[in-house]
What we know:
The chain has about 150 residues and is mainly alpha-helical. The chain has a domain at about 5-40 and about 80-140. Helices cover about 90% and strands about 0% of the residues. The protein contains 3 helices and no strands. The chain has helices spanning about 5-55, 60-105, 110-140. Helix 1 runs antiparallel to helix 2 and helix 2 runs antiparallel to helix 3.
Amino acid sequence: xxxxxxxxxxxxxxxxxxxxxxxxxxxxxxxxxxxxxxxxxxxxxxxxxxxxxxxxxxxxxxxxxxxxxxxxxxxxxxxxxxxxxxxxxxxxxxxxxxxxxxxxxxxxxxxxxxxxxxxxxxxxxxxxxxxxxxxxxxxxxxxxxxxx
Length: 148
């Protein structure tokens, strides 16, 4: 086997190792898309309520104000979820980079990769928890009138 063959095998092995983190990165990207969409809807609803607030009677101002406070809390939670999931995506990129550096630098990257992966899972966990809290607040603030 030539040194070129060994190099190609090293690249192939590094790519094989990086495939799973790339799929994780795709999933986190899809989650970020959902989160940013929710944040956009919250912002749109807040702006609509803000324009309705002017010229309203005091009793409806209290209701709109309460909804605006709820929307602000939801936006804060979604922002935290976006930040944590973005951190998770960056950590996945670091895992992939470390896999390649370890493959070509000829050193044992298993400990840094493991630590980065655990940090990724923690960041993703935090992001999903913030997302779940936002969903609970959204459901709690939902008012559906049913006709019987």
